[in-house]
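I would love for you to help me understand the pair of lines that follows before we discuss the fold together.
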Amino acid sequence: MSTNVAKYRYNHTMYRIRDPKASLKFYTEILGMKLFDEHHSEEAKFSLYFLGYEDPASDGLVRLARQGLLELTHNHGTENDASFAYNTGNGDQGGYGHIAITVDDLTAACARFDKFGVKFVKRPEEGRMRHIAFIADPDGYRVEILENPMV
C-alpha cells in the first residue's frame, strides 16, 4: 500500500461554537465568508457548518475537494447557557493561536469592524506590528487581519 503526499491538501480547521446564529453572522456578514455546506444530527445533538471564501478555482467542487475551510461545530443546547464557554487556547496557558484573513485595505476593514461592534484584541496602531490587527469572534477565537496589496 502506498500514498502520494503530493496529493495531500489542507481542507479545514474546526472550532467549537456556543451560538451558531452569532458565529454564522460573524463569519458571513462581518468577514464575508460563504456557507458552503452544513450537516445537522438531531440524534447526536450537533450541527456542522463549513465556511470559506469564493475561489474561481474551486467552483463546483464538493466540500472535501475544497481547501482552507472553517468548520464550526455546535453542540445543541450550549446557546441557551450564557455562562458556557469553550477554551479557545488563548488564555493564561496559551497554546492555540489564530486563523488569518487577508483584506484589501486594513484601515478600511478595521473601520468596518468598528461599525459592527467587533471586539479588537489588537488594533494596527497598538504595539510594534502596525501591519496587522487581531479581532475576536463571538466565542473569543482570534482572527488575524492582514492587508494583502495583491487583491
In short: The mean pLDDT is 94. The CA atoms of residues 45 and 76 lie 5 Å apart. The first strand starts at residue 12 and ends at 17. The chain is about 15% helix and 30% strand.
